[in-house]
Amino acid sequence: MDRSSKLPVMIWFQGGAYILNLNADYNATGLIQASSDNFIVVTFNYRVGLFGFLASQDVKNDGDLNAGLSDQRKAIIWVHNHISAFGGDPERVTLFGTSAGAGGVLLHTLAYGGENTSKPLFSAAISADPFVPEIFPYQRLEFQYQEILNATNCSSLECLRHLPTDSLLAANINRPFPRQTTSPLFYFSPCVDGIFFPDLPSKLLADGRFQRVPLLQGTVTDEGSIFAATANNTDVDQFDEFLSAQFPDLDTDGIDVQYSYIPLNTTSQAYYNRASFAYGDVSYTCYGLSFAAAFASANLPGIVPVVQAYWTSFARAHDPNVWRLEGSPEWKTWGSGQRLKIQTNSTAMEMVDRQQIENCEFWAARNSQSRVPKIASYPKPNKDRSESHDLYTCKAPDNAMRSESLAWCGWRYSMASSPRRIMPGAPCLECRRRKIGCNRSHPCSYCVKTKIQCIYPAPPIAPSTAGTDKIEYVERRVDGVEERLSVLERHMNEMKQLVMDRNSPSQGLQDANRPVSEAVAVATHETALSSQATQSIITIEPAQESNEIFSPMTLVSMWQTYLERVDPLLKLIHVPSTQKILMQACKEIKIANPNTVCLTYAIAYAAILSMSPMECISDLQHSKSVLLTRCRNKIDECFSEINVLDTRNMNVLQALVLYLKCGRLDPQGPNVHSLIGMAIGIAIKMHINRDGDQSDIPPFEAEMRRRLWWHILTLDVLTAQDKSTDPCVLGSSFNTRTPSNVSDSQLDPDMSRPPADRPENTEMTFTLCNFTVAFYSRQLTFSNDFCRENPYPILSVQEKCDAIRMLEKQIETQYLQYFDNSVPLQRITMLATRLNLLRMKLSVNGQSFKESGSRYDQQFIQDCALYTDYVSSMKNCQKSSYFMWFFDNLLNWSV
């Protein structure tokens, strides 16, 4: 590549609702490889929150309104002026982004009223699921400025400019709009400043004052579900209150009627689905459709893909059909009233739902500020509503050239509601195992890059039911139900007998402060309840057991499973103090503190994940997949109820981190790569990352905060490794030291002095090993750009290998020398630590060999063989089978 290459250019706009930077380390390697390395991707950061969108007359007089959008504009100008020096074509620049980044892409088409007195800065735009918040004239946001002044004890903009960043971050929180009692989901947003936006965006769009470029735009099904129902939407009044908190000028009369076609939930969150759809329509879907319709009415080309081949084709030729993947359909244009529907195992064109259009027209007609623009020139399909969901599959044309009659179209993402299955359209086995993106070509780009065989799974064949006698089938089902009931009855009798035995003077009760590792070390896996837990079981009323997804008895059983199988491997919580609040929550789960309930179900989720499918059936009378689904749904509901984005509660953050760390091991689990940014953001708001700045924190709380931060930091590293990106957390952003090497019995909430590290194997030792490996992985296994940004030294491969050898000696001396190889738990954790170190070394050396094209040396081959031996040793530890669930990714890593 040189100055004469003239490659097309794509500029990535990261999301984060204009209050966070969630995709700061976006890695476009896979996207570029999917296009055969024939275009350039540019990424950048921009100011968010009060740093980017604080608005007032003072800021306008002595500063810049919409500073975040100005940062974006400066990046576009820089690319236009200088990209040719890197082989890029300034005449073929495409803006693209998701969420708030996609909203920013759309807003830049409206910049300065669409006027271009000079050469256009970009030639096309891709808007994937755009988020456009309420955009007010800057005078309406004066109250935000005054709130910030009050929160920081300042009286002027000049005073704010001299405050440390941490003080401004502490003030950067959500507050209710005037005349509202509930805080909005997102507080800061762009404003109408008279320059960047000469008028309201809806007015600019309606007047045709936007830049005429090809537009590729789409939305996500049920977009509002992750944000809605942060309040208890139990009735129509709370439903209206939730929407009014987000859109203070909104007339809420009749909104419930407009969405009456959506059935009410049967749970306490009766209006959850209606709130989700309404918020998703007004903040995401309708704005995107309005832009698309306006661009179409201006006779602009705009075609929407969803896979990488369509995106890169669009960036190169402003047409996704030119280089689309073989066998994929031609994407129709808006003139036919169709959009691309991308669904699990099924992708095709569909008619845009008439109900969706009616919803958007409803919002456009009722808002005095015309927040949602009207959809211009919508092609009315000649079909009734009952047929509006029909799919229209398009046959790929013989030649891939773009027709001159193209206008535009939209796409929609939709995840099938049924459990995911491995089908011919699924990722290859290697990408699926590594949980990375697969472009589904044959072979895929990742397998080509790593020079390994690309294998796709064969579609499963459903068993035939022909000739099955229905009566016999029903009889078998009845017999199965009766058998499960008998198992359940036997299990309950055993639990009652256990409680009676434990309560007898001869047997005694295990002290709650007894170290859990001691119980595990002697290989006893019996249920060892504390006196508090026993008293909770004895006083449980049977009538309470049917009102939650798990009975109190079941939750107590899961707590014991957690203590035996999760806590020794993932030391996050303080068992004695947590057990007290959990036992009380299990006793009165219906009225328990929501924060405690959230942690309770996160613990239950981790416990179920550690159990085998057969154990779930025999002990809990349900399949493992059903139990995990129930837990995930309950945890999501808890996070929604307590508004996790605004939380400052330790138990909630512990629940989130535990959910994400275990979710990495759940194929159907949460999107950890997307949610890790939220966990980091909450931790920073709670100042957990600044250990040295808070000397007034009690020793016990400081120790718990250190555990929590280092788990977040480790999760950030693991997630980056899973996705082949760089970590989000910068070294300069934290100074929290590692937790002390002590067991829970050495910690007490009332302690007055910090605990002293113990030179022995404690309950924290294995977790500290993982923290240490993760910390050095940041410096040795990620890109040079990440090292420069932190800054870490740029080391050669040999220097990195030397550093890893020194790290091995440090961990052996500091921790592993105290492990007893005869104790199953200690043996397997020792092997896992050595495997982690060896994987780090192999990653560094392997990448060097691939880049240089040289042959593997003898030492590298010996290390590979040693890794295989360690894996075999771990798998052969029969007495450690209870812990193998935690090491699945490590054991299946491809040497």
TrEMBL record:
<dbReference type="InterPro" id="IPR036864">
    <property type="entry name" value="Zn2-C6_fun-type_DNA-bd_sf"/>
</dbReference>
<keyword id="KW-0804">Transcription</keyword>
<dbReference type="InterPro" id="IPR007219">
    <property type="entry name" value="XnlR_reg_dom"/>
</dbReference>
<keyword id="KW-0175">Coiled coil</keyword>
<dbReference type="GO" id="GO:0003677">
    <property type="term" value="F:DNA binding"/>
</dbReference>
<keyword id="KW-0539">Nucleus</keyword>
<feature type="compositionally biased region" description="Polar residues">
    <location>
        <begin position="732"/>
        <end position="746"/>
    </location>
</feature>
<dbReference type="Pfam" id="PF00135">
    <property type="entry name" value="COesterase"/>
</dbReference>
<dbReference type="InterPro" id="IPR001138">
    <property type="entry name" value="Zn2Cys6_DnaBD"/>
</dbReference>
<dbReference type="InterPro" id="IPR002018">
    <property type="entry name" value="CarbesteraseB"/>
</dbReference>
<feature type="coiled-coil region">
    <location>
        <begin position="471"/>
        <end position="498"/>
    </location>
</feature>
<dbReference type="InterPro" id="IPR050309">
    <property type="entry name" value="Type-B_Carboxylest/Lipase"/>
</dbReference>
<dbReference type="GO" id="GO:0016787">
    <property type="term" value="F:hydrolase activity"/>
</dbReference>
<comment type="similarity">
    <text>Belongs to the type-B carboxylesterase/lipase family.</text>
</comment>
<protein>
    <recommendedName>
        <fullName>Zn(2)-C6 fungal-type domain-containing protein</fullName>
    </recommendedName>
</protein>
<feature type="region of interest" description="Disordered">
    <location>
        <begin position="732"/>
        <end position="760"/>
    </location>
</feature>
<keyword id="KW-0378">Hydrolase</keyword>
<dbReference type="GO" id="GO:0000981">
    <property type="term" value="F:DNA-binding transcription factor activity, RNA polymerase II-specific"/>
</dbReference>
<dbReference type="GO" id="GO:0008270">
    <property type="term" value="F:zinc ion binding"/>
</dbReference>
<keyword id="KW-0238">DNA-binding</keyword>
<keyword id="KW-0805">Transcription regulation</keyword>
<dbReference type="InterPro" id="IPR029058">
    <property type="entry name" value="AB_hydrolase_fold"/>
</dbReference>
<dbReference type="Pfam" id="PF00172">
    <property type="entry name" value="Zn_clus"/>
</dbReference>
<dbReference type="Pfam" id="PF04082">
    <property type="entry name" value="Fungal_trans"/>
</dbReference>
<keyword id="KW-0479">Metal-binding</keyword>
<dbReference type="GO" id="GO:0006351">
    <property type="term" value="P:DNA-templated transcription"/>
</dbReference>
<dbReference type="InterPro" id="IPR019826">
    <property type="entry name" value="Carboxylesterase_B_AS"/>
</dbReference>
<feature type="domain" description="Zn(2)-C6 fungal-type">
    <location>
        <begin position="427"/>
        <end position="456"/>
    </location>
</feature>
